[in-house]
């Protein structure tokens, strides 16, 4: 009997490593295929752009450009895995940007201390807005599409009102490093590399931290459980309201961080920089393979979704494709990404 | 005789999913005007076979003949065109369309380019008259009973000129009288030459309704026989491939000095069927059965105890300690576990794997430094898989891919972790095959041996009588009678449950 149980357990462990090995193999196969395709595309593009694509400067630029979208998309990933959606993040970039710029101009601080204080103020605004988004969703079971749409309008209106309709210029130079500075410049410059933009470091840290939160913490597991089957999650004793609220708070917080980086880069908090950002962030999540039906997704995939969109934009700019055409291509890519993902699920899973 | 020619013949059907050979050469045929029962344990391949017939799956091998002609069924519309109608256990009605619109969905009568509402009512009424049944055509299905929704499905199939109707567990949620009405309707359609494939776990009803029975096991046809030639014990033997011992294990008596574990007083709830003034207690090592008709409020009672619905009045004590039930969390903390009737909808996250489902309610126990430790989860899950004999290739298998019985065991595994000592089982063996049933009963006994108290809701009287120390009969959300096991008879219980006796 005991022997029997041991055998069963041994078989199970073998089974688990089997399943995992298979998953790894198929993941590698997929990634391998994608990398190969990417390489070919990169070489072709490089030839057509007369070598301007494959330069350290250009690639660093792409990373810096996707920073804001990638950070927004991290929060959006959490929301979408719970089968929700957050349409307010674009306006929240603006609202937090305007509030942070006004705050930075008003307080007698400077240097890193000012940056930190400003970030805290921005986070407070963003997280509060996220909380307000979540309350009707968790208390009255209203669709998040509506509550965040309402927040999108209110936050944008408020941003314009506070800013009197024009960008609020930041007086202090304390944000310059965050916005346009580089790390390891002294070390990398002699190698012909431009250094690592500080904004990119922010993004990398956030991606790593939130990837760990999503995959390795209780909260992350609950996010998936709620997206997969909210009632089963509730009956397992999970505080569904708290987890869902937190998810919108995270999304609002991500918008605040993106707002700070944008404000730092342009040295002003502008009430119209975020138009369309919410859709860009959803696109990154979807291209990354997260299901809008909830229950599936990953922060790392979302990052790659944002990267893919960023590369595409960059390539089209380098090839001199006009912006209208760029929109058509981008839309088509999003469509193809979700269709391919669905077909893959259907026939390969 | 032309009437007994097979309408449908499926030969050597093979269907393989990654890692599983779901169908391994299944063959069977259905004659015109015949009810052909398909039986087998869960996971035997019945559903897969029917999905092949419905065009939901493409078979990897074998052939399908309809009316003697080889056909290819590449989608639901192809099945419909061939006269094959499917009535799944979970109905396919549009909840917001009226019954008449559901019946005629896709076949709406038109006047020119516009819909013809009057013609629709006439057409639907004609179909119902033909069936000899009445349905509120202007209502939405939400307001219909399960039996009425089923009738709607049948009418829908007939509008589509179905000559073969597949019914999956049609009596699972019906009362005795509704079952009689359904069987009368099937007999009527049979006489008109409609063929039926009848899938059911209720083996005792097959002699009443089916002409022939095909037993499927491990994706293979084991035997097809006339129903009269296949006694029930023989059928079970063929299904499980081994003779089964006594149906129910022997219940050990409750020790005389056993303490009261669950004490419910004056419980009221108003979420679904109103529960009123429910008072009872369960001792360590005791199973209390809740009998009654579907919709009597039994599920609502256990849901209120588990905090799935919040009680409006009354007290619940576990081992002498008052439980504050404001939601499932408080009940779980107090050691109360609900194993719900609808395991896919309420018991499991189907897209998660066995490990994630098993640890979901007690994830805090697997945390190290704020992070979940998957290795610890997997070790615990593997222990439970071995203990419960869950048939899964590994802890990493997605729960959606397991059979019903094994899914139920995963729900149980979830509540074996932690200090649960009150188990509320709601229809624990519904839709589960004979072999897994016996295993679940054995497991209930092992819970009793650990000093757990069990409340079991069941619509199957043999189960209530065979697996309870005491039986409470519920009607209209109240407890109407209590029987010790020795005094309980099906007659007494039914009389009180139906209100014939007070």
Protein described:
The complex is a heterodimer of chains A (349) and B (502). With 349 residues, chain A is mainly α. Chain A has a single domain (57-348), classed as ABC transporter involved in vitamin B12 uptake, BtuC, CATH 1.10.3470. Chain A has helices at 2-48, 56-81, 89-106, 111-140, 144-162, 176-180, 185-188, 198-216, 218-228, 230-235, 240-266, 277-287, 299-318, 323-348, and strands at residues 168-169, 182-183, 196-197, 268-269. In chain A, strands 1-4 form a two-stranded antiparallel ribbon. In chain A, strands 2-3 form a two-stranded antiparallel ribbon. The two termini of chain A are 36 Å apart. Chain B is an alpha/beta fold and 502 residues long. Chain B folds into two domains: 2-240, P-loop containing nucleotide triphosphate hydrolases (Rossmann fold, 3-Layer(aba) Sandwich); 260-497, P-loop containing nucleotide triphosphate hydrolases (Rossmann fold, 3-Layer(aba) Sandwich), CATH 3.40.50.300. Chain B has 17 helices and 24 strands. In chain B, the strands form six sheets. A six-stranded mixed sheet of chain B has the order 6-9-10-3-11-12, with helices on both faces. A six-stranded mixed sheet of chain B has the order 18-21-22-15-23-24, sandwiched between helices. Chain B is globular and about 70 Å long. Chain A binds chain B through residues 5, 8-9, 12-13, 15-16, 18-20, 23, 212, 216-218, 220-222, 224-225, 228-229, 231-239, 295-296, 349, and chain B through 18, 306, 308, 327-329, 331-333, 338, 340, 345-352, 356, 360-361, 363-364, 367, 370-372, 378, 382-383, 385-387, 389, 392-397, 414.
Beta-strand proportion of chain B:
25-35%
Mean pLDDT of chain B: 88
Number of strands of chain A: 4
What is the average per-residue confidence, as pLDDT of chain A, rounded to a whole number?
Answer: 87
What is the N-to-C order of secondary-structure elements of chain A (H for helix, E for strand)?
HHHHHEHEHEHHHHEHHH
